[in-house]
Design brief:
8 helices, 2 domains, single chain, about 0% strand, about 55% helix, mainly alpha
């Protein structure tokens, strides 16, 4: 997901240097076949430190975005070579429009909606449904909305 930062509209010198480093780091890595992407590895969360820079988090999995957008290795090289002239770069314009067109889905929200929908469809008795909803409301009120993992430990 670090590669999404490439479409960031900030054009400061520091931001341009970061984008160039991201692309250089990406091109140093061997591009895996689409079938070789590790879905579990892609879900690993890496916590940056105060001295971390974005390019340090680029790995082979970073190619997932470019594969999904249909970019070839030559397209990525062209983007890297024109990164200093983002305003007039056709490859940057292409990347930016593709990334801005991505649809974002909140998977957890979708799962919760499905869970509630399934629950309602299976409970045809209004009294049982109301009793269950009251239990859920009571349980949720016992936990603060900003609960952290540390509170459970």
């Amino acid at each position: 997901m670090i590669c999404l930062a490439l479409a960031d509209p900030h054009l400061t010198e520091h931001a341009l240097n970061q984008k160039k480093k991201i692309l250089e780091r990406l091109l140093e890595l061997e591009r895996p076949d689409s079938s070789e992407f590790d879905r579990e590895l892609a879900e690993v969360i890496i916590v940056p430190t105060s001295g971390s820079e974005l390019h340090e988090f680029v790995d082979e999995q970073s190619y997932i975005l470019f594969d999904a957008l249909g970019w070839s290795q030559d397209d990525i090289i062209e983007l890297r070579d024109t990164i200093g002239d983002l305003v007039d770069s056709p490859s940057y314009s292409r990347l930016k429009s593709q990334i801005n067109g991505l649809q974002v889905t909140n998977v957890m929200a979708e799962r919760n909606i499905r869970l509630v929908s399934d629950f309602i469809m299976k409970n045809h008795d209004e009294d049982k449904l109301q009793d269950s909803l009251q239990v859920v409301k009571k349980n949720r009120s016992e936990f603060p909305a900003n609960m952290t993992k540390k509170a459970f430990a």
